[in-house]
What does this fold into?
Amino acid sequence: MSKMHIKLKLNGREVETLAEPRVLLIHLLREQLSLTGPHVGCDTSHCGACTVDLNGRSVKSCTVFAAQANGGTVVTIEGMAAADGKLHALQEAFREHHGLQCGFCTPGMITRAYRLLQENPNPSESEIRFGIAGNLCRCTGYQNIVKAIRAAAERLNGAKEAAA
Ligand code: FES
Ligand code: FES
It folds into this structure.
């Protein structure tokens, strides 16, 4: 099958590659571009472990063809930390509040939470629970994930106020 030319802004870098039209975004990221943060947990669009940010929206990258992302902007968990390695507030908060156990869901969960906090910078507990409803965690019972997202929101809002 002939390959398509795919160009992305991926975690702030311009990336160009070739992929067959049938290739899913998750496979392009993991197998061709070596970004193994987004995970495959189900392949049926249920678990959210494959969540990435595409053009300012959370998507389950197992349900998107790589070709659909052509020309777009993609952020994965690998793009969350700053260039100097400083963790994103969400990553810090997940660590501090024990928002993970096995960690399998964590890249998708944090990437989803990243977009949730852009959509709603000050979410209530129920808004957080609704906002991450597409991301399943088999370990934590969600309590500490919700706490971590709430704590990250407070930290990010505090930093904004301090800068104003
Ligand atoms: S692997 Fe994509 S939703 Fe589960
Ligand atoms: S920490 Fe194990 S699936 Fe969420």
Notes: The two ends are 54 Å apart (CA to CA). The first strand starts at residue 4 and ends at 10. Residues 8 and 15 are 5 Å apart (CA to CA).
